[in-house]
Amino acid sequence: MRRMNDLVGLTRDLDLRLVEAAYRQGIFPMGAAEVQAVTWHRPDPRAIIPLDGFHVSRSLRKTLRQGRFETTCDRAFLEVMRGCAEREPTWITADFYRVYGELHREGKAHSVEVWHAGRLVGGTYGVQMGAAFCAESKFHRMTDASKVALAGLVARLKERGFELLEVQYLTPHLERFGAVEISLAEYLKRLAKAGKKTCRFA
To answer: Which residues in the chain show pLDDT less than 70?
Structure first.
């Protein structure tokens, strides 16, 4: 999803330190391959999923109980990114694999993988800042796999003492999981507070 009314900048390249600084200001990048550029966005309002308000539907609870899927963390970060890019158009360009791969190697970006019979069938990934996690995208190759990934992410964040899960834009799909909108000012306040806390994702 890309909205031009929250556009705050445009660059030709993606740089690791620039990306880190942007996230701390509530800004995130999206690749625009059609113009060979990177657009930078800061939505207002901002969508978050309250960790204590995550809604698990009856059907998802049943899927989780069945144990058909295996969930892991940080086992296949770039593969999850590639799965998320399996759509047209995609904003995940070559520069994103390079920069987010570097963030992952530095322990600042993480993934949740969902496997079935040894095959990667779903996942989600994002950027960590202290006790805040900024989710970037998710994908599925089997029914419910992306939902299982999101449930796995929330469980990991709660288990590790995270305080904030940001999901960029509110959609009807995310709303079903308990996502809500807050003002940009409130988001930046919560981000600053969570960013001062130390949490281990993996």
So the answer is: 1-4
